[in-house]
Amino acid sequence: MAMQQTILEPAKGQPDAGMNLVARSFFAFRRSAKAMRLFLAIAGPGIIVMVADNDAGGITTYTMTGAQYKFHLLWFLILLGPVAYYVQEMTVRLGAVTKRGHAEAIFASFGRFWGWFSLLDLVLTDWLTMITEFIGMTAAMSIFHIPPIVTILVVWIIMGSMIMSGRYWTWEKVTLVFCVVNLIYIPAAFMVHPSVREVLYGSFVPYLPPRPPVGGPSNGLFFMLMANIGTTIAPWMLFFQQSSVVDKGLKEKDIKFGKIDTFIGAILTVVVAVVLIIVCGELLYGKNVNDAAEAARSIMPQSRFIGTIFAIGLFDAGLLGAVCISLASSWAFGEVFGWAHSLNHKIKEAPWFYAYFFFTLLLAGTVVMIPGAPLVLITLFVQVIATSLLPAALVFLIILLNDKKTMGKYVNTRWQNIANITIVVAVIVTSTLYAISTIFDPNFLK
Amino acid sequence: MNSIIKSLMRQVREINRKYAVPEITTTPLVRFCLIGLRIYLLFLVVLLIVSFIIAARR
User: Fold this and answer.
1) What does CATH list as the number for A43-376+388-401+416-439?
2) CA distance linking residue A321 with residue A60, whole number of Å
3) Rg of chain B on CA atoms, in Å
4) Less packed terminus of chain A by CB within 10 Å, N or C?
5) What is the pTM of this model?
6) What are the extents of the domains in chain A?
7) Which among A115, A392, A438 is the nearest to B47, CB-wise?
């Protein structure tokens, strides 16, 4: 029996020092394989929220960043990776420990006034962001001469089908497939043959772009910095990931893998942002490009393949963003109003949850059909507005994660508090600089 | 329609009752800072909206 134990499995609590190299390697492999299977089961919320973060508004922002500043702001995008990780991993801990979504956590911890404030904040920014997703998707498909109304109807059908399976896992796996499609931009960065020296310099040497004709520390630069922050960390992401962690049923013992999931997602979001800036910086630098669809059209004559990649990626980004944002709102309302609010419920079991989901889709899609609406401006300003409101959401999150009574051993460490408070201060400073540059802009109020 | 609105209002009142007492006790200074931050951020948003309207008109 003892010999059998040695061959098949080390006895619990016993060191495996007595085993030969082959046996030790075998057990190490089994442990790793088991850990990998567990991780794959738990992974999802972090990767989805981070990749969906590169939504239609994000693609537009990166496009314009590359077109206006070439590779000069790559370092800033790379910095935003760890920023996004530190912020989002807090929601993993909070969701796994409290088993409450973010909206419910704010109501319970801070009372009804702040609860309603945060919820209405979320509804407004989510609705505006949803509009930008539909703007992106219709613009992308118009490149292939598909009318906006057809795109909107198809999107409604796709999104409806994704969530109506009545199983969170089904929805998650389908969404992860769309996340993989979002990585379609990566080959394009190699195909444009950028200067490696310039890319590396822009990535690792932090500096503000030079003075005119590129801009310098101007209103335009601060606007672009804020738009990039807003597309990397948005209030809806806090609500989405925490509710997703709860709906998935993650426990405290899953937090470690939830953090790895979020970390991988942060890397992917930065990778996509960087490759987009490289592609647009190389192909569109100095050109007057106002949105991602226009960028795709401008790229088509140079490379039909890259232009097509761009358009498909833009549509996918919009779809991912729309799915996640509408779910973030639906979960939030469900938590607060006490409706059944899980993707594991079918429509009959959670009618208000699904009704709200479809309502946001219909409303956002309809606005896009309004003729003459300044759609590009809306896309960029929504990112900036979301950035401006972000510090308030982050402050609540930090206070929640410092509540030792609720969080126990998962409370924020000193280092986590320093990192997150620095992020809050940096966002406020950037917003303030933008406000000052706006007020003192000679064209302001003309 | 009236019954839906009445039902929603009843739910809102219940939510307000349920969350009347916050679980986290914040000092007056913290509450003041939170309100101050919100007012400041809303001011920035208003500025953004004005700037957006000006840009849209151009």
Assistant:
1) 1.20.1740.10
2) 13
3) 19
4) N
5) 0.87
6) 43-376+388-401+416-439
7) A438
Residue B23 in contact with partner chain A when CB distance is under 8 A: yes
What are the tens digits of pLDDT across the range A244-288?
999 999 999 999 999 999 999 999 999 999 999 999 999 999 888
CB contact under 8 A, B48 and A439: no
Q: What is the pLDDT of residues A242-256, one digit of tens each?
A: 999 999 999 999 999
A49 in Cβ contact with A321 (< 8 Å): no
| DSSP state letter for A410 | G
Name the residue facing A111 among B22, B43, B52 (closest C-beta).
B22
Residue A225 token pair: 């910095």
Sorted by where each begins, the domain ranges of chain B are 24-58
- The residues, ordered by sequence, that sit 6+ positions from B13 with a Cβ below 8 Å of its Cβ are none
- Altogether, the residues listed in chain B come to a count of 58
pLDDT tens figures, A202-231: 898 887 776 545 556 677 888 888 889 988
SS3 content of chain A, % helix, strand, coil (to 5): 80, 0, 20
- Of A351, A358, A359, the residue nearest A334 (C-alpha): A351
Q: Which of B20, B23, B56 sits opposite A112 (nearest CB)?
A: B20
Q: Give the whole-number percent of chain B exceeding pLDDT 70.
A: 98
Task: Answer whether B7 touches A (CB < 8 Å).
Answer: no
Q: Residues of chain A whose pLDDT is less than 50?
A: 1-9, 212, 445-446
Supply the ipTM of this predicted assembly: 0.88
Number of other CB atoms surrounding residue A10 within 10 Å: 17
Burial of A399 (0-12, 13-18, 19+ CB in 10 A): middle
- Which residues in chain A touch residue B50, judged by CB atoms under 8 angstroms apart? 445
Nearest chain A residue to B16, by CA: A112
Cβ contacts of A336 on chain B, cutoff 8 Å: 15
Give the number of A-B residue pairs with CB atoms closer than 8 Å: 80
- Pick from A402, A406, A341: which is nearest to A103 by CA? A341
